[in-house]
């Protein structure tokens, strides 16, 4: 009954604040004290007792009351911090101030005229003066708030365990202690494992959530010039040297995330005990994502060409979180990080004999964003991952997520980030080499049974994505095939299952009606042919199954070689394709307008934009599942740059000659770029009718057909088909295993064209990817923070919220 009465008292105070016609005096301390008293026991109470409509009314009709309230909340937080939160009263007041600011700030950010309020120098009370009589103004409210929150995260007996005996004779002053001795968990750069106190975890979580809210001004800006022109002042200050807690906080966030083990040693432990650590780990991961994203738009334009340059770009960065991440270099630290990634990413895949006995985490999307950031910001970490066998323990869960999400339009963002990470990894030789390890551990995926390597698993999952996913994933086709091309020179043995999958993709993508359906569809054929050429030229001895599949499906290659280029045939075939889809002049380079190639029963969301899912949670007020739109997927030629990999089969003179012989050697063309030679010397933009419908022409088809890299495969067929036919007739062979055995002992040495140089398409930083990640990241954070629903029903501009 008493608790109900105290909530009523708090509600009365809120009503008074929003309904009085006159300004409430700032010195009416008894009135203001009600907002941080012990009448409120949870953040849910705050959200229930302070409705959105009343916050907006306060902002519009009584702005002075809102301004005083914000000042009072920050002042009270500062007072608690200066007292080192040594009393229960100070601790209660601090947490309730944090909760109330968490509720208010989104409504301040959604109104452009209010965004400068926390950074203004408006005097709020008696001014101090120097000996010369000059006025000394307080720092802006935002700076005071951010520094106070940072200090409170290392407050003994509030957010960290005290190192001294408790009592009035042994107080620990928050301003004199060395915060680096109070890092939250052992791990990178810190070896001591502090005492775990649940109340500390809860307080840290609430403060970190308020920091998330402080930085969320970004989501109230349009994803265009406004976001590029206006840097986030909150983030700029917090990640700079002005914040004295950057190093201990960065280390604490890293260690609290990557030391977390959700499973533990006792089955069903999460049902028996309240886990205060998981909410903290989740919000810590989200805060790391945001702080490491800041200033990425500046870095993205540099595109350093060497690991040294990449590292120095982090060293020079004014964002100290990025700076510290780029400086991590010890193998022991990298091992802690990589083991943490592997443990947490594999958690959703865990299977036990006791159903539901292991806790499953929900923040794997944040982990994938962090993995991307770590590899992108610290090239030494990327190279450590690639030289470690544990890179496969990152690959398998990503393939699991891709396969699981492929048919769900609400998980398109998850699909994209998984593919982007694999694209980044595939640009390095070690990744392709590691894929030759046999795939033994079986993960629950609905894919064909096979015996083979991790490369087979990757190809089979990619095939499944392309043939059975929804239409919104078509922009990823180029990325998926680029990954296959990048790894193809290093794959020693493909299974029959994966070999057939690759041939099936070529068969589908090379059908004339698909080739003529859109101006860039033929690029997919170039990718696959390049992958086949790499496998034949560099890994022929171990790929008898692939060679057999090529021989068995040789008509596909013959049909490509004899593809019609006359106007009449093209017109007939393109008429067939245009009955399914049209390609408008207004968006000539959008790959999502490609014709749907594989029939499936997936129901695609009809609304524009990409979506990601709200995980599991549906609190009051958010009962309908929601998604958020994403920024446009960057094209593959903007995301990658061509590099020439070292080839043991080529000397320098051959490499120079082949690299400069693009006209005569189709193998050196660049399938990924619409401006490349195989893309045609005739611009596809010239083939739009007056009505804006794109249509292929004879000249356009001839411009890229002449550059199809078919020489190697045609030579292989010319040599091997007669041999296979002869042995089948002479020995009466009908069993494919016998034919494969024959092919394994065959050789094409001296019979194939000179091996072409290996072209690798490496990811390069670009503004499109930066914007995509920022939108996706904030969309994930928006949807994951639903208890309480921090940003729900506010005027977000960065993305659209859609109900599923």
TrEMBL record:
Residues 641-688 are annotated as: Disordered. It holds the Pfam family Hid1. It comes from the Eukaryota. Residues 664-677 have a biased composition (Low complexity). Residues 650-660 have a biased composition (Basic and acidic residues). GO terms for cellular component: Golgi medial cisterna; Golgi trans cisterna; membrane. Residues 678-688 have a biased composition (Polar residues). This is Protein HID1. It comes from Adineta ricciae. The lineage of its organism: Eukaryota, Metazoa, Spiralia, Gnathifera, Rotifera.
